[in-house]
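[#protein-structures] MJ: dropping G-protein coupled receptors family 1 profile domain-containing protein here for a structure pass
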Amino acid sequence: MSDNQSSNSTDSLSFANTEISMSRTARFWILLLFDVPSIICTLVVLFCVFVDQKLRLSVKNHALVILLILGLGTQLVDVPFYLNFIVHSGVFPPNPSTCILWCFMDIGMYNGGAIILAWTAFERHIIIFHSRWISTRKGRIIAHYLPLLFLILYIFIFYIYAFYFFPCENTYDYTLPFCNGSPCYANDPIMGMFDWIVNITMPTLLEAFFSFSFMFRV
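AK: finished. structure tokens for G-protein coupled receptors family 1 profile domain-containing protein:
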């Protein structure tokens, strides 16, 4: 994936022209004061799950662990990058690698979390209403471990390819959050549509469907 830095032309939007009414200082401290406890809580929950064998082996906790790890990427990379952006009034360091990593964590990990969340909503039906499917080791491999492994591999393979290897040219504006936050693959008629339908729309609809149907079944 090739990269092209945006020029400082007169029609370029600046951070100042797109800011919300809340001051930068207020935004900085609100994000920081919520992000730090969030990171601590995530690490505590992960620690408790990993050290307790019963919690670690429970199938109902595995998708939760994946969600927490994906969320940790946002907490440790996405939010700090934005805090850094507020401090410097621009992307720092201003280079394509920063932009790609920021967008990867912001878009890839968020959409990945939505996919895992949709699977979690579906898996609740299996755990509660079809527990016999996962009562044996073979059943757990087929109905639990393999789907989770497939989804994890799919998320990372798709977004690593989309951000780092897809043959298109990014245009970055270091004066805007996420370097303008529009990866070039999203403009491709096939790749962009596939991402929108499969990774964004479908997980949202499926999660809502499985959650509501679960409520009516209990």
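MJ: nice. Strands lie at 2-5, 169-172.
AK: one more thing. The two ends are 49 Å apart (CA to CA).
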